[in-house]
Each structure stands twice: as structure tokens, then as C-alpha cells.
Design a protein that fits this description.
2 domains; about 0% strand
Length: about 240
């Protein structure tokens, strides 16, 4: 199933949810909060899906260009979403504005801000989403077409190479792998950050309430991994 099909499914839920939420809010219905929360999740998912799909497709086309000889034209055309048509900024604005509208739903009680601010922000978020929908859908279909073109082109080239007894395009490419030092650093730092978060944010600086376990043990494993990784790097360097 193509990504544009998933987009259309979420699009239907988003449009119906936005209209229902706005109607419930304007009429003072008790359903407004429940509808608003559900709709906010759908709208954020709608815009986020487009952004992630475009980023992933751009990465795929870049890999095809760098490792399989694919024309740079494909990459340039895929980046139109980010550079020329403004779809990327509309998607971001749609996602952030609906979250802002949800937060401001409690503006009267929590922030002392007039309730009208929530109303105007919600209507603005709905407008941004409605404007962005056709642009995002067209961008999805354009990139799907680019991927289809690239796939056909590369498949045809692989068939030609196969008749000559050559390996497929990009078969000699070595994918990037995290270095042992990078993995060790991750294992070392993350438990420290979790411990600090619990102490500073959850217990407001009272670290006596925070257990060192299992974070100190995990960090210790990361430290050992880091030492072993550095020794391995030195050994490789000395052998060379």
C-alpha cells in the first residue's frame, strides 16, 4: 500500500475531527475536550507522517545517487517539498499549531489567558491544516512517482549488468555502522542522563529520593565497553 493511501485515511479522520471539534467548541458541548484530544493526535500524526516520509525518500534517493549512479535530478526534485513549495513549513506549522491549541485549551484556568486565545489558535490550526493538505498530498504523490522512476531505472540497469555477468549496482556499498566507541558512549551517558532527570525534574533536586540502581551498573558497563573500544582502536592503529 502506498503512503498516499495511508495519508488519505488519516486525512479523512483529521478533517472530520477538526470540524467536529470546532463545532463542539463553538456550541459549548462537553464532547469538545475528548474530540479535541483525539483530533490533535491524528493531525500531528498526519503532518509528521509526511515529514518523515519525505526525509526517508530523500535519503533513499541520495543513497541511490551516491552509490548506484542515480542522477542528481531525482534528489533535487524530491527536495522541492522542503525548498520551493513550502510544504515542509506548512506541515510543521500544522503540527505545532494544533498542539498549541490543545495546550491553550486550559488557558483560562492555568495561564490566566482569555479563552478566546484558544478559540483563535484552534481555528488557525484548522486553517493551516486545510491549506497544507493538498500540498502535502501532491508532494507525497510526486515523490512516490520519483521512487517508481528510480526503481525502474535501477532495475533495468541491474538487468543489463546481469547479462554481462556483473554484480547489481551498489552491491559493493558498505553501510555505515556505529563505532564501538560510539555505542559505548551511548551506554555510558544515557543512564547518567536518566538519573539526573529523575533527581532534577521528578524530585526537584532531592537526589536522596533517586536510586542509583540500575543506572550505576549500566554506566559501569558502558565505561568498560569504552575502555575496550579504545584499546581496540589503538591496537588497530599500531598494526597499521
Amino acid at each position: 500500500m502506498r503512503m498516499s493511501t495511508y495519508f488519505m485515511s488519516l486525512l479523512t479522520l483529521a478533517v472530520v475531527g477538526l470540524i467536529a471539534t470546532a463545532t463542539a467548541g463553538l456550541t459549548g458541548s462537553s464532547m469538545h475536550l475528548m474530540l479535541g484530544l483525539g483530533t490533535a493526535f491524528v493531525v500531528v500524526g498526519l503532518h509528521s507522517m509526511v515529514i518523515l516520509f519525505m526525509l526517508i525518500c530523500a535519503r533513499l534517493l541520495r543513497e541511490g545517487h551516491e552509490n548506484c549512479g542515480l542522477s542528481a535530478t531525482y534528489l533535487k526534485r524530491s527536495n522541492d517539498f522542503f525548498r520551493e513549495k513550502g510544504g515542509f513549513f506548512l506541515a510543521l506549522a500544522g503540527a505545532f499549531s494544533i498542539v498549541a491549541a490543545g495546550v491553550l485549551g486550559y488557558s483560562k484556568h492555568a495561564f490566566g489567558i482569555p479563552a478566546e486565545v484558544h478559540l483563535y489558535t484552534g481555528l488557525f490550526a484548522m486553517l493551516i491544516t486545510f491549506i497544507g493538505i493538498p500540498i502535502e498530498l501532491q508532494a507525497l504523490r510526486n515523490v512516490e512517482g520519483l521512487l517508481d522512476e528510480a526503481r525502474v531505472l535501477l532495475d533495468r540497469e541491474d538487468e543489463v549488468r546481469a547479462t554481462r555477468g556483473e554484480a547489481p549496482l551498489g552491491s559493493d556499498h558498505q553501510p555505515y555502522k556505529d563505532s564501538p566507541r560510539g555505542i559505548a558512549g551511548f551506554v555510558l551517558i544515557v543512564p547518567v542522563l536518566i538519573y539526573l532527570y529523575q533527581g532534577l525534574m521528578v524530585w526537584h533536586g532531592d537526589f536522596t529520593q533517586v536510586s542509583l540502581h540500575p543506572w550505576i551498573e549500566i554506566a559501569g558497563v558502558g565505561a568498560i565497553m569504552l575502555v575496550l573500544a579504545r584499546r581496540g582502536e589503538k591496537k588497530i592503529t599500531s598494526n597499521n
